[in-house]
């Protein structure tokens, strides 16, 4: 006799990357677009900012959960104490790219992953910004796409950089829902 199917998590995100990661892990889920507007205030600690955004997204869809776990996730890119959110336009994306050139940044998702960027030429930046891949991306890049060409090395959970800290998620599911989602 097999175990009953796990109830799908409620993912408070429309990110295709997060959807792909959950599919890769075999975790059932339903998507609900969060009704939450991110406001990045200057000087706020990155960890606290990420936690607030993730919680805000989760709370905005919680009334649709019907007792299921709700997953709210946010990613921030931090360099020199500055939080790089989602750029508003191509000029801001180019500025962020110039700022990370030859630098190591830390992505915080209550899990830190360090990404070191190679030295970027003005042509590298112009080509990447022209691709529009930076749109809606923390730090103005997507490591799983063309942005991979900007990166020299990574320390930590690659999937955290993509948008969902898989190792942390699996640990939480194993601890809080042992066996339900196939972990623990």
Structure description:
By secondary structure, this protein is α/β, with parallel strands linked by helices. The chain has one domain: Maf protein. 34% of the residues lie in helices and 17% in strands. The protein contains six helices and eight strands; from the N terminus they run βαβαβββαββαβαα. Strands 5-4-6-7-8 form a five-stranded antiparallel β-sheet, with helices on both faces. Strands 2-1-3 form a three-stranded parallel β-sheet, sandwiched between helices. Helix 3 runs antiparallel to helix 4. The chain is elongated, with a radius of gyration of 17 Å. The mean pLDDT is 91.
What is the percentage of strand-forming residues?
15-25%
Kindly provide the name of the CATH class. Answer: Alpha Beta
Helix content estimate? 25-40%
Main beta sheet: strand number and arrangement? 5 strands, antiparallel
CATH domain fold name? Maf protein
User: What is the N-to-C order of secondary-structure elements (H for helix, E for strand)?
Assistant: EHEHEEEHEEHEHH
């Amino acid at each position: 006799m097999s175990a009953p199917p796990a109830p799908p998590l409620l993912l408070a995100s429309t990110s295709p990357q997060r959807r792909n990661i959950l599919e890769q892990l075999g975790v059932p889920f339903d998507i609900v677009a969060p009704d939450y507007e991110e406001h990045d205030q200057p000087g706020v600690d990155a960890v606290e900012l990420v936690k607030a955004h993730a919680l805000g997204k989760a709370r905005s869809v919680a009334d649709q959960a019907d007792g299921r776990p709700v997953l709210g996730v946010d990613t921030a890119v931090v360099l020199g104490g500055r939080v790089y959110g989602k750029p508003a336009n191509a000029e801001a994306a180019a500025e962020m790219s110039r700022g990370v050139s030859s630098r190591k940044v830390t992505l915080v998702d209550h899990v830190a992953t360090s990404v070191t960027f190679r030295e970027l030429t003005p042509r590298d930046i112009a080509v990447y910004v022209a691709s529009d891949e930076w749109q809606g991306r923390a730090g103005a890049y997507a490591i799983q796409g063309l942005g991979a060409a900007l990166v020299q090395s990574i320390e930590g959970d690659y999937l955290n950089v993509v948008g969902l800290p898989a190792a942390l998620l699996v640990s939480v599911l194993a601890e809080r829902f042992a066996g339900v989602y196939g972990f623990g």
